[in-house]
Amino acid sequence: MKKILEIALNEYGTKEIPGELHSSEVLNYFKETGFAWVKDDETAWCAAFANWVLFKAGYPGTGSLMARSFLNVGEAVHAPQQGDIVVLWRVSRTSPYGHVGFYVAEDDTYIYALGGNQSDEVNISKYKKDRVLSYQRLTNKSRK
Question: What number is the average pLDDT over the span 55-66?
Fold first, then answer.
């Protein structure tokens, strides 16, 4: 999982560009993971970023831009380690909407995730623990 965090951290600070211009880095996350039809950086890109990181680390992605598609990657674990995938709900626990990132740390109230499209950039953000749907751990079996 160290390689996953290293790849993701190298993108730290990549941001959307407000207005008519678009971040070439964000567009590249879409392009290199099979979503070249996306031509703007306003399209939700957390799953594109997570798929791109997995691709660069030698793991298959989900083939989807839906954050909850990462519930089907690797195996669910209850005690996350750095670099595990964290899938969170958005809107409501039962809605189709979510967010995906990579687990970094936690305290009593929050988990800290490294991900894309967190306040329109790649960064480490905190999320209340009750928003976690699952932690998913990649294994050597998950590799391409």
Answer: 96
